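tool_log.txt
---
The assistant was asked to compare two proteins side by side. It first ran the structure predictor on the initial sequence, then on the second. Raw inputs and outputs are pasted verbatim so the downstream comparison step can read them without reformatting.
(1)
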Amino acid sequence: MTFQTLFAASSGHIYIGNTIWYLIVFAILLVLVKHYAWGPVSEMMEKRRQKVISDLDSAADNRKKAEVLANEREAALKNSRQEATQILSDAKANAQKTSSQIVAEANDDAASIHEKAKADAAQAKADALDEARAQVADISVTIAEKVIAKNLSADDQKDLVDQFIKGLNK
């Protein structure tokens, strides 16, 4: 085999020289690709993988935070409903208590007004009776004076006055 035959191709035959040459060129290209392209591409892919992992972790954290916030809001809403119910219950109880106090005070006022009216009526009755007695006494004295003046003598009148004075002293 000659040099020319090692590196020359005849119809349908591949020679070892060409194969070696292709292998050397392929190896050089692999080294160049690894050095200039594979490293940066691998680094870029690793950064992208880290970013995706970071984004997924961040999304999971945000989802957990959102769930916690949703639970807190739900608890706050439940608390506010309970507080509203408690406030309404307290307001109803206070209104009932105030209503009871007002009714009790009104009943007390009515009872005191009734008692005062009874006392005023009794006093008015007593005053009316005293006045009627006084008037009856005055009328009786007047009638008695007229009757006595006609029927009694001066000595009888004097005895009657003396008896009356003695009756006053008792």
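(2)
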Amino acid sequence: MPPGARVHHFDELSERTQHALASASPAGRLDIDTTTSRLSRGDIVVFTDYVRVQ
């Protein structure tokens, strides 16, 4: 992680921002309005996938 990078936890982001991140293209490109989210270029979002065991 680069020094000075801001880290956000996925579950602490707004529902709108969570949805935008979850629907990002496979190339990792997404369009998030930085004025309505707490994210800025270079920020890091901590996220863990969940698996349902049946």
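---
observation on (2): The longest strand covers residues 7-9. Residues 7-46 form one domain.
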